[in-house]
Amino acid sequence: MNILVVRNDKLGDFITALPTLYVLKHDNPSNRIIALVAPLNRKLALSCDFIDEVIVDEGEDILALALKIKKADVDASITLFSNTRVALAQWIARIPIRIAPATKIAQIFYNRRITQRRSEVKMAEFEYNLELTKALFPDIRLAFPQPLLHFEEDNFKVFCEEYGLTKPIIAFHPGFGGSSDANWTLGEYIELVKIATLDEKFDVVMTFGPDEEKLYHDAKELLGESRVILYRSVGSVVDFAALLSHFKLFISTSTGTYHLASAVGCETFTFFGDSRFASCARWKSIGANQHHFMIPLDPNGREEMFETVKQALKNRLLTLS
Predict the structure, then answer these.
(1) pTM metric for this prediction
(2) Domains of the chain, each with CATH number or no CATH
């Protein structure tokens, strides 16, 4: 069976779809798994051995997207997050079985509409995604390995040689990005970074995305003379994921880089907004060894939580080797 899985939004959202893609392939290896993704996630999707074909949604008009889908000869589709454009494109492409959550006006274009009520946050996003596979295969096993992602190309040795890194790496990613709505200030991140630098058995790295030039320079100024490595990611998402798979601990807000780190098996300290929509209950990632912290909106609660995070970091550094 040729199965299309649609998750054509941001990096973190796509990573929550990976277990779904995995179980569909491993339920029956003869299934041909096709992923419809955003351009940002193309290379990551191509690197997954449980995805057989990748269709990139370039934002073209509905008919052009429908033609792309039609060429894939899809027997069934599972749309994890829908809008009217992708729903109508699948209808025009005449996919026989079209599965999606029963939300929004777009649901009229699907013929298997599943009530989930994700806003109630009874499960995490990736668990809701997995549940949709049961509409196609009621007896499907939903288990998946952790870590789920592995990469043959490995740039870690070159990275370490370039920056003179010889010890286990504690990494901080202070940027926002994605849909995250809670984070510490750069100054507060620097406080956490300085805690890590006190432990000589680790190398400490701060990572920055390609569009975070100002944040990079601000951090450089605040750190002054320091043994902290400031790394600007210049390669692909897959290149960065390969690095993350070697880091000992990754500390960031709940954005795509957190999901990426968790998916490749890196332990995480992650900061979430103090609301049901933004919570760790909804947006926990697909890996193990996750430590979650909800940042309160009120200043006093925020200050108390920051002290909790500092102590938790000190304690974890003592036990990491």
Answers:
(1) 0.95
(2) 2-135 (3.40.50.2000), 156-319 (3.40.50.2000)
- Axis crossing angle, helix 299-319 with helix 186-197, rounded to the nearest 10: 20
DSSP state of 120: G
Any idea how long the chain is?
321
Q: Where are the alpha helices (DSSP H) in the chain?
A: 11-15, 18-27, 42-46, 62-71, 84-92, 125-132, 156-163, 186-197, 213-223, 237-244, 256-263, 280-283, 299-319
Whether the per-residue pLDDT at 178 is higher than 70: the answer is no
Q: Count CB-CB contacts under 10 A for residue 225.
A: 5
Which amino acid is present at 141? R
Over the chain, what is the mean pLDDT?
95
3-state helix vs strand vs coil in the chain, percent to 5 = 40, 20, 40
- Band of residue 260 on the pLDDT scale cut at 50, 70, 90: very high
| pLDDT of res. 180 | 55
37, 85, 129, 237, 279 from 290: Cα distances, Å:
26, 35, 20, 21, 14
Is residue 265 within 8 A of residue 146, CB to CB? The reply is yes
